[in-house]
């Protein structure tokens, strides 16, 4: 993806890119992560369920994998998913309907930087592999903070960069050569899967991301590294004012 001069241009480019790869997105997600992404999502779900929320917001929901996993795990929870890409949402809606979860999962188009919900609407919020696509992460997370209720929890699952040998070297090779090649062959969109490693390398992971969460108004922020540091779960609570 080319450098963007403003928020709108990046938003539109991300929307177009994910609309384009939507039909192959689920397959590539699981294939390119060797299926490990499912275990990462389960860890996020366990954290959310332990707080016993009633209403959960799934930001950058994509094809609703995380929302569906949460709905299956806890029948008491209702989930609202938002995403820029309507083609992704359409696939998600078909999955939700097929699984007979339409009464508990609703999906709608929306921008994470301008969420279409009133203040204090949700008990928890979650986003998997979406924050790195924000033009302004602090603004996006401040919006999440706004729609959370007092002491509401926010969970972010995102790729990170391993630092230790040999995983750091293997990861770099895989992300630089294997992932873009397979992604291009299967999806037909070469830019989408070169954008992924570029966006991961540009992402401020670890303590740098915690600093951004705190700027957005979250407190008691925590980090949990997964699979040798390939992914990370970030957690924060809505700041009381």
Question: What is shown here, in short?
Answer:
This protein has 241 residues and is α/β, with parallel strands linked by helices. Helices cover 49% and strands 22% of the residues. Strands 3-2-1-4-5-7-6 form a 7-stranded mixed beta sheet, sandwiched between helices.
How would you portray this structure in words?
The chain is an alpha/beta fold and 241 residues long. It has one domain: Vaccinia Virus protein VP39 (Rossmann fold). Helix content is 49%, strand content 22%. It is built from eight helices and seven strands, in the order ααβαβαββαβαααββ. It has helices at residues 7-32, 36-50, 65-73, 86-98, 137-147, 167-187, 190-202, 207-215, and strands at residues 55-59, 78-83, 105-109, 122-128, 148-159, 218-226, 231-238. A seven-stranded mixed sheet has the order 3-2-1-4-5-7-6, with helices on both faces. β1 (55-59), α3 (65-73) and β2 (78-83) form a beta-alpha-beta unit. α1 packs across α4 (86-98), α1 crosses α6 and α2 (36-50) packs across α3 (65-73). The protein is globular, with a radius of gyration of 17 Å. The N and C termini lie far apart (39 Å). Residues 1-8 have low confidence and may be disordered.
SSE topology:
Layout: H1 7-32, H2 36-50, E1 55-59, H3 65-73, E2 78-83, H4 86-98, E3 105-109, E4 122-128, H5 137-147, E5 148-159, H6 167-187, H7 190-202, H8 207-215, E6 218-226, E7 231-238
Parallel strand pairs: 1-2, 1-4, 2-3, 4-5
Antiparallel strand pairs: 5-7, 6-7
CATH top-level class: Alpha Beta
Count the helices. How many?
8
Helix content: 40-55%
Number of strands: 7
Largest sheet: 7 strands, mixed
Give the overall form.
globular
Number of domains: 1
Backbone structural class: alpha/beta
Taken in chain order, the helices and strands follow as: HHEHEHEEHEHHHEE
Determine the N-to-C terminus distance. 39 Å
Based on the coordinates given, report the CATH architecture.
Answer: 3-Layer(aba) Sandwich
